[in-house]
Amino acid sequence: MKKFPGILFFIFIILRIGASAQSTIATWVVPEEAKEKVCPFQFTPETMKSGENIFQKNCKSCHGDPGKQNWAKIVPPPGDPASAGFQKQTDGEIFYRVTTGKRPMPQFGNILSDEERWQVISYIRSFNTNYVQPAPVVKAGSGSKTLTLRMYCNYRQKKLYVLCMEITKDKTEIPAKGIDIQLNVKRYFGILRVGDPKTTNAKGLALFDFPSDLPGGQFGILDLSARVKDETGNLYSNQANARLAIGKPFLFKNLTDAHAMWSVRSKAPVWLILTFSLSLITVWGFIFYIFISLKKLKQTN
User: Fold this and answer.
1) CATH number of this structure's domain 3-125, picked from the four choices 2.40.128.270, 1.10.760.10, 1.10.10.10, 1.10.3720.10
2) Kind and range of the H or E element at 53?
3) Are the CB atoms for 148 and 174 separated by under 8 Å?
4) Which residues are within 8 A (CB) of 200 and not within 5 positions of it... i.e. 6 or more apart?
5) What pLDDT digit, counting tens, does each position of 186-206 carry?
6) What one-character DSSP code corresponds to residue 253?
7) Model confidence, pTM
8) In this predicted model, what pLDDT tens digit does every residue of 97-114 receive, in sequence order?
9) Is 235 in contact with 139 (CB distance < 8 Å)?
10) What's the mean per-residue pLDDT of the chain?
11) DSSP secondary structure code for residue 258 in this structure
12) Do residues 243 and 154 lie in contact, with contact meaning Cβ atoms separated by under 8 Å?
């Protein structure tokens, strides 16, 4: 009987940890269009094996072994991928969370390719005997559709909207749903991808957050472009461009403005000026000393 309270306390702690993990998932908002995202290929024993290898290298240190509830003791608890709460998520939700990350979980969109992230999901789903994979959907892109893009900015909400419309055979425009749009920004040495592709909703809109941490010159102006992207990673010629003052204002300093070794003479470091002046005085003093000594020696003779 003495052990009974201890057992109850242990069960209580386990339930609290599980509830905390589930609460973390519940408060991690996933866009509706992301929830509907479907893997473009069929899960097979090969994809599951590849996913297992990726999971062991990148996920096990925090999530532990699926089904064994031996995740790392961090806050918030990462949870067990084999648990019922974890498995309730759609494939799109898991893909979104793996891609975007949320502290302390890193953004694997910058670490793993789209295919590798889907392979991890393939492995995770192998622990759910009731799971039925949705039929794979490969985005058509502009290979089979005539699409046009327009970019809009909502400064108050700090959002960028890309409107994707399909031009039908009778030249009318209808919203293009389910099209992946990639946002890019022009930098000095090329084009920088901004985040991951967003999928258009039923209204043909793809929603992006402001890249406000990107320096945009004195007035924060960024040269943005949006392009259609298919599941194989190809970017089509469909493109919308915009110059928007949504970046971080950054005033470039002239290298000759500060006291530095590479600056102009008037901006040379003080220590360098003093060292040069002292050296110059020393050299001329030594020359003057030799001249006086030679003059005295001549007078003596």
Assistant:
1) 1.10.760.10
2) helix 45-58
3) no
4) 33, 162, 164, 175, 176, 177, 178, 179, 180, 181, 206
5) 887 778 888 888 889 999 999
6) P
7) 0.50
8) 998 888 889 889 878 888
9) no
10) 81
11) S
12) no
